[in-house]
């Protein structure tokens, strides 16, 4: 979606041009205050000019602009990767390529692990009802509301299901914990930024579900907590690649994890 | 005519909304307090509340409705959530059997954390989705009777019975309080409570949990 608008950089365009709202929801969403201001907003040209030949970023030169005029929507994804600390500004283009590749592989590995535990991960489906009891007994036919899978994926889902004797009770506490969060993620994914045209595409919904499911597995202390879907959503909107979006979210959570850990919530009471 | 300021009321009643995630608690709240319904509403984070002042049995009652995230892990904040609540709307989704089966868990949650005199009303929401119904109205009615709760099916979307549900629970609470006030008055021989005072349904010797998190 961002790509389509790349290059369009007029003084009057606002966020709503980039992040289209469903017409039936537009009245429920407050108008954005963001406007691209020439000379203030970090433009595509200014952003690219802030890199050296080898790719290190002179971040100080862009931070002022970002603070005073925001970031042009066409480059928000790449800018946020630096702002969230995914990459060291002193790294080169090559360094970052390597890191990115390694991270994509790592994400794919984790996703594969999750898929092995629950074949809905990566299938394009979203679970909205529990698939397991608290004692680890699988629940047959959980309500799977969303089917965004291609026929190929559907076939692989069925074959995995048949190959997996899901009848026996799980005993691994961590796996049970993780499985118990999956439907909650689904319930929230279906309620996240639904006024955006972006989420009319079912692939984007399942991307959000997959990323949150994988995150819940790798950060067992936080797992999934209501509110995280709202934080993850902008990453998916801004970054095309699912793994890249995951790593941005992971970086964001590093900063915020304290707020999501159980002891923090308990302190409240 | 005198200008009626917001804090002019006879009673302030705190009512909590509870039930599984996604049953429509927040939309029940917005329907009742702002007459709004949003299909695109987000999941609730932590606790929110809204108020509405209305007439119940000739009294001006300010209803303060608390809404919370349904996710299990938010149960950690429940002792604060239930503190001072005189009513609870226990919501399930008529299209989600599990949310109805979990009513018992929510009831024991109330018994453990809320005041023992709390007035509970069971609400089967989303009655507009009759074609997807998986809990019959009679089942809801039967459970409510067994547990001694009042019961209604509502549709926050169609604004059906939401008003009635709150009116019912508020007048139930009001009746209890009137009786208590009367009893107290007879006992102490003093006048009725002054206007605008918050009265807790709880006995002063009530079994409300004390301290943090009651672990």
From TrEMBL, chain A:
InterPro entries assigned: Rab-GAP-TBC_dom (IPR000195), Rab-GAP_TBC_sf (IPR035969)
Span of domain Rab-GAP TBC: 70-269
GO molecular function per UniProt: GTPase activator activity
Pfam families the UniProt entry points to: RabGAP-TBC
Family annotation (Gene3D superfamilies): putative rabgap domain of human tbc1 domain family member 14 like domains (1.10.8.270)
PANTHER family: RAB-GAP TBC DOMAIN-CONTAINING PROTEIN, TBC1 DOMAIN FAMILY MEMBER GTPASE-ACTIVATING PROTEIN
Protein name: Rab-GAP TBC domain-containing protein
Originating species: Triticum turgidum subsp. durum (Durum wheat)
UniProtKB/TrEMBL annotation, chain B:
InterPro entries according to UniProt: P-loop_NTPase (IPR027417), Rab_GTPases_membrane_traffic (IPR050209), Small_GTP-bd (IPR005225), Small_GTPase (IPR001806)
Keywords attached to this entry: GTP-binding, Lipoprotein, Membrane, Nucleotide-binding, Prenylation
Presence of keyword Lipoprotein: yes
Chain intervals with Polar residues compositional bias: 192-207
Cellular component terms per the entry's GO annotation: endosome; Golgi apparatus
UniProt main location, coarse: membrane
Compartments (UniProt record): Endomembrane system
Gene3D superfamilies on file: P-loop containing nucleotide triphosphate hydrolases (3.40.50.300)
Pfam families the UniProt entry points to: Ras
GO molecular function (one): GTP binding
Membrane topology value: Lipid-anchor
Highest taxon listed in the record's lineage: Eukaryota
Ranges for region Disordered: 187-215
PANTHER family per the UniProt record, alphabetical: DRAB11-RELATED
Protein family per UniProt: Belongs to the small GTPase superfamily. Rab family.
Protein name: Ras-related protein Rab11C
Primary gene name: LOC123123532
């Amino acid at each position: 979606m961002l790509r389509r608008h790349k290059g369009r950089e007029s003084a009057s365009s606002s966020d709503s041009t980039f992040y289209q709202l469903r017409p039936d929801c537009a009245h429920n969403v407050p108008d954005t205050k963001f406007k691209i201001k020439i000379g203030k907003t970090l433009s595509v040209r200014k952003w690219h000019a802030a890199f050296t030949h080898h790719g290190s970023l002179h971040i100080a030169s862009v931070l002022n602009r970002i603070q005073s005029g925001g970031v042009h929507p066409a480059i928000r994804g790449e800018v946020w990767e630096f702002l969230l600390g995914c990459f060291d500004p002193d790294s080169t283009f090559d360094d970052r390529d390597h890191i990115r590749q390694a991270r994509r592989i790592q994400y794919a590995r984790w996703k594969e692990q999750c898929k092995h535990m629950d074949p809905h991960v990566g299938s394009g489906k979203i679970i909205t009802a529990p698939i397991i009891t608290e004692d680890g007994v699988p629940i047959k036919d959980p309500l799977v509301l969303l089917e965004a899978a291609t026929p190929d994926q559907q076939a692989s889902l069925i074959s995995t299901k048949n190959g997996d004797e899901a009848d026996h009770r799980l005993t691994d506490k961590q796996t049970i914990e993780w499985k118990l969060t999956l439907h909650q993620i689904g319930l929230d994914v279906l309620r996240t930024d639904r006024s955006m045209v972006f989420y009319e595409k079912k692939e984007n919904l399942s991307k959000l579900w997959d990323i949150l499911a994988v995150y819940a597995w790798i950060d067992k202390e936080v797992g999934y907590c209501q509110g995280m879907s709202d934080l993850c959503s902008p990453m998916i909107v801004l970054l095309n690649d699912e793994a890249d979006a995951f790593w941005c979210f992971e970086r964001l959570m590093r900063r915020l994890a304290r707020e999501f850990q159980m002891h923090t919530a308990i302190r409240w009471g | 005519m005198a200008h009626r300021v917001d804090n002019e009321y006879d009673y302030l009643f705190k009512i909590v909304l509870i039930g599984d995630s996604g049953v429509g608690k927040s939309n029940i709240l917005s329907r009742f307090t702002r007459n709004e319904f949003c299909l695109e509403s987000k999941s609730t984070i932590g606790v929110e509340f809204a108020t509405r002042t209305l007439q119940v049995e000739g009294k001006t009652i300010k209803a303060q409705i608390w809404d919370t995230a349904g996710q299990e892990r938010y149960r950690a904040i429940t002792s604060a959530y239930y503190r001072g609540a005189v009513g609870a709307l226990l919501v399930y989704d008529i299209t989600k059997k599990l949310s109805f089966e979990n009513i018992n868990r929510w009831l024991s949650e109330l018994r453990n954390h809320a005041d023992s005199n709390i007035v509970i009303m069971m609400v089967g929401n989303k009655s507009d989705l009759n074609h997807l119904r998986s809990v019959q109205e009679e089942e809801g009615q039967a459970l409510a009777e067994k547990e001694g709760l009042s019961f209604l099916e509502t549709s926050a979307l169609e604004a059906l019975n939401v008003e009635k549900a709150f009116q019912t629970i508020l007048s139930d609470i009001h009746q209890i309080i009137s009786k208590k006030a009367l009893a107290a008055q007879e006992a102490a021989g003093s006048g009725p409570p002054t206007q605008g005072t918050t009265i807790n349904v709880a006995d002063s010797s009530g079994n409300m949990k004390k301290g943090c998190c009651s672990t």
